[in-house]
Amino acid sequence: MDEIKWGMIGCGNVTEKKAGAPAINKVAHSKLVAVMARKMEKAKDYAQRYDVARWYDDVDNLINDPEVNAIYIATPPDVHLEYTKKAMQAGKPVYVEKPMARNFAECEEMNKISRETGVPLFVAYYRRTLPYFVKLKELIDQKIVGDVRLINIALHWQPYDEEVGENPKPRWRVFPEISGGGHFHDLASHQFDFLEHAFGKIKLARGISRNQAGLYKADDIVVANFEFESGIVGNGSWCYTINKEQRIDQGQIIGSKGKITFSFFESSIIKVETASGIEEYNVPYPPHVQQPLLETIVKDLRGEGKCPSTGETGARANFIMDEITGK
């Protein structure tokens, strides 16, 4: 492929800044040429705001558009398998939002289709290429805190505004039939994908998931222990119903010579503590966080490089989360 001409399925929030036209059109040899939404007026509005040539309200029409040679699936996970299958059977590479699907079994089916058709599959685990996490992995690889012994994760957030009050209207992320789980599946997927990218495969993961607050039917608290093939062990806690004063997003990498403290979502600071003292690195996120990963996808499709986030790597996060939640 020379020029990557994207067709995008879904015109939600993720396509307004993180990805979509703002990121796709800034990558060399890449252009968004068609969009699809279930409501035609939404697709038309997006297309006109971002100077996209064509818009649809039918997924088959977008996938079969002869000008489109790659598909970006920017929808909730419940249709990822269906749309990936349609696109690959049409011979068009797929870039799918995370989590890759609702569960590991669906991910496996997507990878099976990719193998059978020979059509590439990429997943939006963009932290693999974000400068902040590239720097973090560099510090890990340099053994700046020695041999890693333990990883701690704490992600405790207050409920979203629409989940509380007299007339709550939770969004799709807390409906398991759509998302595969709750906020844990949405956010921990990023965390486990990066951890395997940095430390290798997790061979054992166990946990407890419960709904304590009753704001919605998905789990709202998860605790877990996990072990990497290398022997590194880790633990984590995820709670989405605390008060905002106790909000925390913190990861700790504890080694034989020190500790690295970092954030998965909210801070641009990486803090390294050793016997020599404390050193901080400030690595801000770029304006469009998926752009660095999209650049690797375009190079991969053009035969100029390799994307680090594929269907095979993307499925692993679902496998780990299924193991933890007992699905």
Any overview of this molecule?
With 327 residues, the protein is α/β, with parallel strands linked by helices. The chain folds into two domains: 4-127 and 289-310, Rossmann fold (3-Layer(aba) Sandwich); 131-285, Dihydrodipicolinate Reductase, domain 2. The chain contains ten helices and 14 strands. A hairpin with a 2-residue loop joins strand 13 and strand 14 (277-282). The longest helix has 17 residues, at 183-199. It starts with a strand and ends with a helix.
Give me some keywords for this one.
globular; 2 domains; 10 helices; six-stranded parallel beta sheet; eight-stranded mixed beta sheet; alpha/beta; Rossmann fold; 327 residues; 14 strands; Dihydrodipicolinate Reductase, domain 2
- How many structural domains can be distinguished in the coordinates? 2
Low-confidence segments: none
At the first level of CATH, what is the class of the largest domain?
Alpha Beta
Rg (CA only): 20 Å
The CATH homologous superfamily of the largest domain corresponds to Dihydrodipicolinate Reductase, domain 2
Distance between the termini: 39 Å
Say how many strands there are: 14
Order of helical and strand elements = EHEHEHEHEHEHEHHEEEEEEEHH
- The fraction of residues assigned to DSSP E strands is 25-35%
Query: If helices are DSSP runs of H or I spanning 4 or more residues, what is the number of helices?
Result: 10
Say what oligomer this is.
Answer: single chain
CATH architecture of the largest domain: 2-Layer Sandwich
CATH topology of the largest domain: Dihydrodipicolinate Reductase, domain 2
Strand order of the largest sheet: 8-9-10-7-11-12-13-14
**Shape annotation:** globular
Average pLDDT, all residues: 98
Helical residue percent? Answer: 25-40%
What kind of sheet is the major sheet? 8 strands, mixed
Structural class: alpha/beta
